[in-house]
Design a protein that fits this description.
This protein is of the alpha/beta class and 413 residues long. Helix content is 37%, strand content 14%. Keywords: Pyridoxal phosphate.
Length: 413
């Protein structure tokens, strides 16, 4: 495989490990379990620690297996570098931990994954002001900006109500104002969408979800797309400015979030995720097609009150999603008409599994208000448009006809 020739998404991921030498001719980068790395020349060890030459120092900050996964994700996102973390929340937490200070201001989409919402509440308690805005319209984001705004954070497709952020216009706004644009790409994945195309400087992926795809490993990542000028970011410490400005952000993130905070990905998990990533495109195409078929069926059923999926023409941001994404993803949610108990409905499903993960090969369902969004309270749920009967679905790769029959049969009671 030539480095110079341009290959497609799946071909690139399948053969990426082989672009560097692998022990014994292995096709996969093997699992390196060592947490420490020795050097015959002590001067070389010092040079690695000082960042003057590449190498591994200690497992908390890097490992050959994790490095191979990071390189793979960088290729997926068409970025310049990637850092991996123990979880997706570890990756988002790294942004707060390494880049923000008391007195800073953040504008975040008001339509957020529940744990991300909780993280921003924690940040607010530690002196970072957080303003929540309806990111489906750039005007709302612009109105929330202040002179102290350091970054804007959005998800591509919101979990669980599937609102789609006004990504291109928000990216343009951030470019004009010199503000770091951070995009959580988990619900779309790098196969369906690359946030770099709308000016995102940092891209979050919860590797646990669609990239790993099999529900057998936790992980998260941050990718620097090269789109943001780190010389404009005021919170970079002097000791991370030794190299070119393009490297400042990742240097501080690696030190502050991995070395100091320790949210490190394990090599065994990195290997599982790397192998799962090889079929990302195939799985996303199948899951997206399944989701579209099931949501069309549910929308046409009189026993269903509402269906939220960007692939439906009735979705408020359908046109926006159509212009941005290759397909509409595996996530949707729906509400049942009054008189149909959501718990009873879920218990009648044979294929849909009551579980809290997303992006699995299997279809997973969960009653949102009573589980993952329960802690935030009824008032906050109402402000996010989350009804008490809302069911979130992460569609898998089962045969389409079987899923249609399962979701429809459960409506019959």
């Amino acid at each position: 495989m030539s480095e110079k020739k341009s290959y497609g998404f799946t071909t690139t991921i399948l053969h990426n490990d082989r672009q560097k030498p692998i022990e014994h001719g292995s096709l996969h980068k093997p699992i390196h379990t060592s947490v420490t790395f020795g050097y015959n020349d002590a001067r070389q060890l010092a040079s690695v620690f000082q960042g003057k030459e590449p190498g591994f120092r200690y497992g908390r900050q890097g490992n050959p297996t994790i490095s191979a996964l990071e390189d793979k994700i960088t290729k997926m996102e068409d970025g310049v570098s990637t850092l991996c973390f123990a979880t997706g929340m570890g990756a988002i937490g790294a942004v707060f931990q390494a880049l923000l200070r008391a007195g800073d201001h953040v504008v975040s989409s008001s339509f957020l994954f529940g744990n991300t919402n909780s993280l921003w509440q924690t940040a607010a308690g530690q002196g970072v002001e957080v303003a929540f805005a309806d990111a489906t319209d750039v005007a709302n984001v612009e109105a929330a900006l202040t002179p102290a705004t350091r970054l804007v954070f959005v998800e591509t497709i919101a979990n669980p109500r599937t609102q789609v952020a006004d990504l291109a216009r928000i990216g343009q706004l951030c470019r004009e104002r010199g503000i770091l644009f951070v995009v959580d790409n988990t619900m779309t994945s790098p196969y369906l969408f690359r946030p770099k195309t709308v000016g995102a400087g940092l891209v979050v992926n919860a590797l646990t979800k669609s990239i790993g795809g099999h529900g057998n490993a936790l992980g998260g990542s941050l990718t620097d797309t090269g789109e943001y000028d780190w010389s404009a970011f005021p919170n970079i410490a002097a000791n991370y400015k030794r190299n070119a400005p393009a490297q400042w952000g990742m240097a501080q993130l690696r030190a502050k979030a991995l070395r100091d905070f320790g949210a490190s990905l394990a090599p065994e998990a990195a290997h599982h995720i790397a192998v799962g990533a090889e079929t990302l495109a195939l799985r996303m195409e199948r899951a997206s097609a399944n989701a579209l078929a099931v949501t069309r069926m549910l929308e046409a059923d009189e026993r269903v009150a509402a269906v939220y999926y960007p692939g439906l023409a009735s979705h408020p941001q359908h046109a926006l999603a159509r212009d941005l994404f290759k397909a509409y993803g595996s996530l949707f949610s729906f509400e049942l008409k009054d008189g149909i108990d959501c718990f009873d409905y879920l218990n009648r499903l044979k294929l849909g599994i009551s579980a809290s993960n997303l992006g699995d090969t299997r279809t997973l369902v969960i009653p949102v208000s009573h589980t993952i969004f329960y802690e935030m309270g009824a008032e906050r749920r109402a402000s996010m448009g989350i009804a008490e009967s809302l069911i979130r679905v992460s569609v898998g790769i089962e045969d389409t006809a079987d899923l249609l029959d399962d979701f429809q049969s459960a409506l019959a009671g």
